[in-house]
Amino acid sequence: MKIIKLLGAVAMLSLPLLAGAQTVPPYGPPITLDQAKKAVAGAQAEARQNKWDVVVAIVDPAGQLVLLEKMDNTQNAASEVARQKASSAALYRRPTKAFQDGLAAGGAGLRILRLEGAVPLDGGLPIVVDGKIIGAIGVSGVTSEQDGQIAKAGVDALLK
């Protein structure tokens, strides 16, 4: 049974890397400040609706900060965590939840711990427009799952 789990974890982590551009969108032009503001507004609306205090970070495809907003009463460490989640999602071109799930699977998934800048916490999502990654969003301040929900709301608001 352990071997089956190990093979599953290896397959899960290897497929996106082996498939290349077929499963991972290419980089596009960097997100604009107006687009970043729209994504942050959507994320904050979701957070406020649920009475959650969070930090929302938006980065460009190179993982460089474009916009960061911290809601009142959010823990101080959340600013850096949100930025790191966004950067990880942009640089590795995948949701940070993929790293969280791979690490949780154990076995070969533990190799994630050696990937520089890979954040194994839900809440970081690439922002894909016209099939290309223009940046990423990172959210921190509540549970990992809730951070992911807020990040998705931010991306959805931008894409409307």
Q: Which percent range describes the beta-strand content?
A: 15-25%
In whole angstroms, the N-to-C terminal distance is: 45 Å
- Strand ordering within the main sheet: 2-1-4-3
Silhouette: globular
Count of alpha/pi helices = 5
> Which CATH class applies here?
Alpha Beta
How can the largest sheet be summarized? 4 strands, antiparallel
Fraction of helical residues: 40-55%
Order of helices and strands: HHEEHHEEH
The CATH architecture comes to 2-Layer Sandwich
Q: What number of domains?
A: 1
Mean pLDDT: 90
Low-confidence stretches: 1-21
State the CATH topology.
Beta-Lactamase
Secondary structure tally: strands? 4
- Secondary-structure content class: alpha+beta
CATH homology group: Haem-degrading domain
In a few lines, what is going on in this structure?
By secondary structure, this protein is an alpha+beta fold. The chain has one domain (2-159): Haem-degrading domain (Beta-Lactamase), CATH 3.30.450.
Mind explaining what this structure looks like?
The protein has helices spanning 2-19, 33-49, 78-92, 96-105, 144-159, and strands at 55-59, 65-70, 124-129, 132-140. The longest helix has 18 residues, at 2-19. The chain has 5 helices and 4 strands. 48% of the residues lie in helices and 16% in strands. The protein has a single domain, classed as Beta-Lactamase, CATH 3.30.450.150.
SSE order and pairing:
Elements: H1 2-19, H2 33-49, E1 55-59, E2 65-70, H3 78-92, H4 96-105, E3 124-129, E4 132-140, H5 144-159
Antiparallel strand pairs: 1-2, 1-4, 3-4
Helix pairs in contact: 2-5
